[in-house]
Amino acid sequence: MDNKLMLMIPGPTPVPEPVLLAMAKHPIGHRSKDFEGLLADVTAQLKWLHQTQSDVLVLAASGTGAMEAGIINFLSAGDRVLVGVNGKFGDRWAQVCETYGLKVERVTAEWGKPLDPAEFRRLLDADTDKTIKAVVITHSETSTGVLNDLETISKDVKAHGALIMADAVTSLGATNVPMDEWGLDVVASGSQKGYMLPPGLGFVAVSQKAWDAYKTATLPRFYLDLGKYKKATDKNSTPFTPPVTLFFGLQVALDMMQKEGLESIFARHHRQKNATRAAMQAMSLPLFAADAAASPAITAVAPVSVDAEKIRSLVKKRFDILLAGGQDHLKGKIFRVGHLGFVSDRDILTAIGALEAALLELGYDQCQPGAGLAAASQVLTQG
Fold first, then answer.
1. 261-382: CATH superfamily
2. Low-confidence spans in the chain with pLDDT less than 70
3. In terms of DSSP H, where are the helices of 207-285?
């Protein structure tokens, strides 16, 4: 059957029909009063989602563009920064920082393991001259399914005085990221994740402390100059031409999120994470990340006796369900099941059932048929 593709990857994620219908409307002028009203409403909703009184700015960019903007607006060439690296995206932010001439120190952990807050604390405590200007952390490391302890690391960064910058691309809208409570200075995210939108919008939340650093930061910027976005957003406008129809969809998606409520959203993601992990364990498929550090957005699985790419290929061919593969040196060694954004319990059961059928077809005999579904169902029914 055509057009039945089911996305079970960390992005793009499924888009609700009301959001799609909103985006099908004819565009309006982005310098019109109608758009000003739309942007005012969306800005208020974004502050609610970020749990902040600070600015939340919208860019026509991917999550990478949002994160790059969050780095370059508040630092100067030669500044010393600590970057947590325990996966592909942590490494990407280190590369971005190096591209702009920042002095980067990688604080590393093995892929599949969480960053150690104590290592950041040691470096921060030793920096009596306050040469560290920023700490960059990937909250949910999408490449490995690991959730880093952003809250603890942020406390130590605040005590030091440096800026704390967070990639919340696959954590915002999936788990608690209270910007003001945790004292985060820069929080970046993208529309095709927990926001339940297609790709195209990047979001950068900025604290007053970061704006103070902006005044003396000297890295080059033009389109990604967040000062321009703040000035325009304060007037319910944009500095450059926005993707108007994506804003239509954003408004509807944020309305849906507010109706569900943050606590319910977080509970749903964690419930589906637990169900997915229980299913994998029941099927004797090794999990790549430990339970204590498991991301609510994505579950990484490292099969031993059956090829990860053969599993993905067969699930796609037979059931039109797309699972994510491994990245870099993990390509072919893991597959990843997304449970982020507009994903229901039914979707989790469907994906697990398809995975079990594919394993049977591949001759996998290390679990009883239906064991994964039974384990997932037990978690889901317990709430």
1. Aspartate Aminotransferase, domain 1 (3.90.1150.10)
2. 1-3, 383
3. 208-214, 226-233, 244-260, 262-282
